[in-house]
Amino acid sequence: MKVSSHVVARMLGAWQEGPGPAHQRLSDRLRLLVLDGRLSLGSTLPSERDLAVALSTSRTTVGAAYRTLVEHGYLATRARARATVRLPDDTPPGPRPGASPGTIDLSFAAPPAPVEILHAAFAAALEQLPRHFERHGYDRNGTAELREAVAHWYGRRGLPTAPDHILITNGAQHALALLARTLLSPRDQVLIDHPTYPHAISAFTEVRARLLPVAVSSSGWDTAQLQAASRIARLAYLIPDFHNPTGLCMPTSVRRSLRLACPTVIDETMTDLALDGVSPEPFALHMPTAISIGSVSKSIWGGLRIGWIRAAPSVLERVQQTRHATDLGTPLVEQLATAVLLNEGRTQRPGTLQQLKSQRDALRRALAEHLPDVHAPQPAGGLTLWATFTQPISSRLAAIAPDYGVTIAAGPRFGVGGAFERNIRLPYALPPSRLTLAIRGLAQAEQALTRGATGVHSPAPVA
User: Fold this and answer.
1) CA separation for the pair 204, 185 (Å, rounded)
2) What distances in angstroms separate CA 26 from CA 57, 209, 250, one per listed residue?
3) Which of 77, 169, 224, 324 has its CA 20 to 30 Å from the CA of residue 22?
4) Contact predicate 207/186, CB 8 Å
5) Which run of H or of E encompasses 10?
């Protein structure tokens, strides 16, 4: 697969920033794109001249960067042919080099399982299961029990909802992928928060949509920019409830005033994780046409792959037609267990929320002690801090951090065009002692970078 010079330039982003000569900065950034999987193995890079023009730099700089990558085994070249992306021959298969069972994983923003609560919910589900044995077991809408439970969940939040406005999915990511395949065509523009959830970016790019990012700053959402962008977008995707990755929560005043000109998908997976104050009101209270998606993966457990779409029946009918090509329904026992959890109000557990609050505060104290120059505002809820470094080292830090006992999700995973090299997402779903050890390891990794060290680790999965 040929990768054009303009595509590579967008991936590289602000590659000029950072220490060292230009060719070294360029080769480092290209190497990180290979390790990150954004430049796929076997793809061919643009010629030195074409990339130099796209980057507004000299051909000498690009040539030196390419030669460095060839010497280290990240590019293969042959006469009169484009350079081909590869990995060094000595890269071992299997786990990432340097990673060990003791490595602290900060790439997943997910709480541990509430064992007793889950056990009781599945026990109740198994008791209910025989009522379904006379049916075929395939249900493209979801069980009546769970659709009613989700509808009641919205009702308790002040948004009356009928069960026929609910479609059950295999998690929120499945819901978003179904909506993308149903509502978008190639080259349609999709308005997104910037930064945003990495798997949302994947869902839209897989249907060949074009992303239209609108910045979410430390002060929140820019209503004017969102409304202007919505006039040229085919679809909008927003995370107003304890935004992933920043943790921001859209104020009620903004929800009331925001009027987008395109269909809007609202991600509510973090809604029940309010740590300071109460949970936000449903976005659809102020935008009745909004399509809401949710799940229990963040409020209960990531292993419970149950999600839903709340939308008008006409929209759900279109999604059902799309769904036939990918799956025939959602597992029954998991649906029945989730219905029990929702009906018992288990998505908001005061003890768990207090524990998350304590872990959030412990993470911020560890940053203040070991990485005092890193800025990480305190979110009112959710599971993550959005940390900002003084230098654009995020991808390089992710590549070396496993050598110091921690894996992280680099900032560019949450954006487009190479943005957010100064940022990393830091979940606080682990005990305080583990979080402190992780930040201590990150501080050691940052010090290693300043001494000129480099890493070879490919990116960890993100959730």
Assistant:
1) 10
2) 10, 28, 37
3) 77
4) yes
5) helix 5-12
